[in-house]
Specification:
The structure is a homodimer. Chain A is an alpha/beta fold. The first copy, chain A, is built from 19 helices and ten strands. The longest helix of chain A has 21 residues, at 261-281. Chains A, B: Pfam families: PPK2.
């Protein structure tokens, strides 16, 4: 630890700069390798402690072309919004270093102080827990996260405040309003103490930098960044106690109920209308996802769900292999990106479960990665359902014979011919491995908030009716006991 | 043309569906080929003319996995905002088909009717012109654009309005407020006439579909999409009358003034502070861009510009080769994406001029492409400067000897060693071709709104002072005569 009395020599800062640049390039060059990783730096702190100055100094010491800085005034944290939504575009890709000056913690701090919604002690603690999980996920997926708090005594804060023409300094801040951001109150001892007591509830795992001495502060900040850049990649979390599950009985032999066309048509129309109404007026965001073997009927079911909805009311996401820029980010990132807009109804034709299905079966990732994914996905869905979303998951189950019949039918139907590819036939050869993966997935990711619904789908009519009914039931059940 | 009396047979719709799917896959398969193209469909229309229904029907006929639909309530068009900003993520990539239900025209229509700012006749005409230029740019860059207006008589509009429980139907619309979106007024003949007269000012190149008969309407809509999908790629616009220019004198032999270190330091500090103040309080968005040979001093100049700014006040964009997902879109798209956030100061270390510099010299594109780019870039910058942005462009000019000296210096300076790569040496071998390209660029893209500033940069001190002074002058000059 450096004491205040120590002087920093020019030679020291030159060496620091050189080390930083070297470490930046080393990070950059991990991109595309097995060692690929990124660095995310969260910065917060007391006003006038010198965050901006330290960031500016850092930018001069590093190669600024490889340090991305995203700085904003706080976003409002509310129970309706996911804290990570504003930050999705700024999660670093492999090889990147991103500094978030303003981040989910400072959003929470500002919202606690000035927000429109009261944040209870319990909610606060829950937000922090979610944020920790989010960061753990990033860490486990090769994005290191460090958090740095700039602190300052009340006496020095007030001294620095006096030196400043606040009205002028803040004029340029986007969307600035005094009401939102009552800077004059910083003279207030109570506010200072409030900030300190709120931030102490989340900064126990932060690096704290004393902003008293400007040079030391800047030097220490840059050294912390250097240490983070040079830190060897962390060991991945231990894999979970995974045990292969027995094949789920409904997967092995889907129930074979059969519905007459006439009865189907009658029930269908009624249900389609009922469901559209229920979804339209549900105040929550609705996340529907469909998994199942090729030709299990996912697309057909989705068609019926949206029958009486307006295209403005929903988004359909058809998930296939990630693109290159998506592969350079944590696996869940591309789904965060799709859910960023907070639109009311999101329907996934295949989903993040690709991680524990195709990616597992095709050996695209290590055993450790897909086993850890059960946890990661559960947390992600928990996070969604804590924020006014309801997550409804379907596995459409068909027999191997039925799949063959449908493949052949597709080959013989001009409109469907396009839907069948060599890949479908290759997947079919791994039928048993997919059944194992699906059975494990059902076991490990059927949670209280987001249970799986296994739908026997050898008969399309039966399956569709059951899917519509299930969604209706889930919406009604959860509607009765709002959180 | 189909008349209302004609019936559409089941066989016809089946064939249409098949043709659509085939055409979709043909489009998708152009991705990554020389024939790569995308399709953008803009949809607007009178309320109750059946836009939603036609889109829903289309989704049933096509393979919905390859039709993206983006639907929103209107964005406010204001003089401070670029009309394309909300739509950047929804410009289709090669191989994609995107339907914008709600788009820049409907934004303009809604803003004319209900907007907070008055839109004058002249502004309206200018917006339309900008929109046309934007679409021409897309077309020339392999994104076909079709625009479809659903029309309906007042009598039928009112009849359909009566059938509807409006309050309920609109409850789900995001951010909905009656004040913004006074639906009850649709009964009003004057409003209907207003909408018609406004939309007629932009729909002359739209396909108009009569919404009277639901089946015919849906069928015709889908047929127009099919026709667009099947249309052979358009001929690229003729290349401009390009003539190679003489090498710009200041590029061949940059003026060699020299500034003493002491004088430099004094002037610099004063200018840095003045400039920070000027930029901070300028109400416009500021776009600064730097081009020049490798080692011309772009990074060093940028450092001095931001010296007294807060990191929250600016963004620096270091532009290198586009990533793959960016290459699958029109060239300017990645710059639209960077300017999407409407942040106050954007600084580009290299820029969209890569098109007529490195891409031209390295033969990455055809002569026709880079020659057309002069126009495209001029329009883009004109568009920026029409919307409260000031665009300030620098070419930093050094001699070939000076570059060699700097390269050698970089090799011998540990902190700078990283900045020099084999590519820099390869570029140097093409010195004369770059000079030619730069001279042409200066000639063809120095416009009234966005003139080039050529800065003799053999002496770094002189260059930096001149750059700071130039920005100050531009800010002041344009500040005096606000548009």
């Amino acid at each position: 630890m450096m004491t205040k009395r120590q002087q920093i020599t020019k030679k020291q800062t030159e060496q620091l700069s050189l080390d930083l640049i070297e470490a930046q390039y080393a990070l950059k060059n991990t991109r595309g390798t097995d060692q690929a990783r990124g660095l995310l730096i969260l910065v917060g702190g007391i006003e006038f402690a010198g965050k901006s100055e330290a960031i500016k100094q850092l930018r001069e010491w590093v190669d600024p072309r490889h340090l991305y800085v995203k700085a904003d005034i706080p976003n409002q944290i509310t129970s309706k919004k996911l804290f990570w939504q504003p930050y999705v575009p700024f999660i670093p890709a492999h090889g990147q270093m991103m500094l978030l000056f303003g981040n989910w913690y400072t959003d929470l701090l500002a919202s606690s102080l000035y927000g429109e919604e009261q944040i209870s002690e319990q909610d606060f603690a829950e937000y922090i827990e979610q944020m920790h999980h989010f960061e753990q996920y990033l860490q486990a997926n090769d994005i290191d996260v460090i958090k740095i708090w700039f602190d300052l005594s009340l006496a020095t804060t007030q001294k620095r405040l006096e030196r400043l023409d606040l009205a002028k300094a803040l004029q340029r801040v986007p969307n600035f309003s005094w009401a939102k951001f009552p800077v004059s109150n910083w003279r207030n001892k109570k506010l200072y103490n409030d900030i300190q007591s709120i931030r102490k509830r989340f900064t126990s795992d932060w690096i704290i930098i004393d902003g008293e001495d400007e040079k030391l502060r800047n030097y220490q900040f840059a050294q912390e960044i250097l240490a983070a850049l040079k830190k060897p990649p962390q060991l991945k979390p231990q894999k979970i106690a995974y045990q292969a599950q027995d094949i789920h009985p409904q997967l092995n032999a889907p129930a074979s109920t059969y519905l007459e066309k006439k009865a189907y048509k009658q029930q269908l129309k009624k249900l389609e209308k009922q469901l559209a109404e229920a979804m339209r007026y549900d105040p929550r965001n609705i996340v529907l996802l469909f998994e199942g073997m090729d030709a299990a009927g996912k697309g057909g079911a989705i068609k019926r769900i949206i029958k009486y909805l307006d295209p403005r009311e929903y988004q359909i996401h058809s998930i296939s292999a990630p693109e290159r820029h998506e592969r350079q980010r944590p696996y869940l990132w591309r789904f965060w990106d799709k859910l960023r807009d907070d639109s009311a109804i999101n329907i996934f034709d295949r989903s993040w479960y690709g991680r524990v299905l195709v990616e597992r079966v095709e050996h695209l990732i290590s055993d450790q990665d897909w086993q850890r994914a059960y946890h990661e996905i559960n947390r992600f869905e928990h996070n969604l359902s804590q924020h006014s979303a309801i997550v409804i998951k379907f596995w459409l189950s068909i027999s191997k014979d039925e799949q063959l019949k449908r493949f052949e039918n597709r080959l013989n139907t001009p409109q469907k011919y396009f839907k069948i590819t060599d890949e479908d036939w290759r997947n079919r050869e791994k039928w048993d491995q997919y059944l194992q993966a699906a059975s494990d997935m059902l076991h490990y990711t059927s949670t209280e908030h987001a249970p799986w619904h296994v739908i026997a789908s050898n008969d399309k009519y039966t399956a569709r009716i059951q899917i519509l009914q299930t969604i209706l039931e889930r919406l009604n059940a959860e509607g009765e006991c709002p959180k």
